[in-house]
Known about the structure:
Blueprint: E1 9-14, H1 20-25, E2 29-32, E3 52-57, H2 60-71, E4 107-110, H3 121-136, E5 140-143, H4 152-174, H5 180-189, H6 194-214, E6 220-224, E7 243-244, E8 247-248, H7 252-255, H8 262-266, E9 270-277, E10 283-289, H9 295-308
Parallel strand pairs: 4-5, 4-6
Antiparallel strand pairs: 1-3, 2-3, 2-9, 6-10, 7-8, 9-10
Helix pairs in contact: 2-9, 4-5, 4-6
Amino acid sequence: AVAAGLGPLSLGTDGAGSIRGPAAACGLVGLKQTLGVVPREDSADALGNTSYAGPITRTVTDAAIMHAVLAGDGSPAPLSRDPWAITPAPQGRLRPLLIGAEATGLRIGYIARCANPRVAADVTANTNAMLATLADLGAEVEEHTAPFDWAEPPGRVLYQAGIHVGMAKYMAQWQNRMDPVTIAFAERGSRFTLADWREAEWARTTLFRAVQDLFADYDLLVMPTMARTALPVTHDAANDQVMVDGVATGITRQGWTAYQYPFNLTGHPALTIPSGFGTDGLPTALQIVGPWGSETDILRLGGMLEQARPWAQHRPPVNGAP
């Protein structure tokens, strides 16, 4: 609806990428904020929460304004029912390196792949163009090539086991009307043991600390938001493998959206912005990730890239018209 111009803003919820993925697939901006900055008092597991609410918009400015409203004034919320919101990460600070029109000296770590085995050639080409723009702005861009465990299997345990437990009470009455993919994920989640779940929670902690270590070397991280453009509407997320340049690369979490779910687990803020268009004419996107509480930084860098490589003038074709 936002891409088609039916409305200026949309509120998304993101448990494993569902703000950033739709935004990236539609040529829009999407922000998943730091854990606790926007209270989620409806979460069934407040302490172990991995779900966020945030903006999907056409421009970075709109995303920044909407985020500011959702986050409030940043003051602690001692009576909040979300424990992460009681003492939230500080908001509003801007790195001095991002105050001007350039980003001279900003250290940016480029992550070419997370848990995904391949990246489409058109996505890589558009990502490289964005990296070149960052270099033109004065940033020091370095590819991070050291081995890194992005905890995809443990993340899947938490995600699918959570679906199983959450959906169990509805199955008897509503299973014949439920989404088949949700049912398949719930069934897979039922096979995990308590030990699997606990080990996945430990893996989440390990992943958080590993990402924290990256920010000892880099101010911000960048990477594609997705490994390819949007999947066909007929794609079965429970069973079909994602095809990237004609090669099967695993299910969606492995082959397509592997850049998104890690930051649901770690709590770091992540912004997706358009990076161009693929050979199929569909949008591609770049993701910017920062330390906890760095929404202002990643929005600022996104705004600089938006100014250098504007995208908001594009609209999807209507009735065959460009």
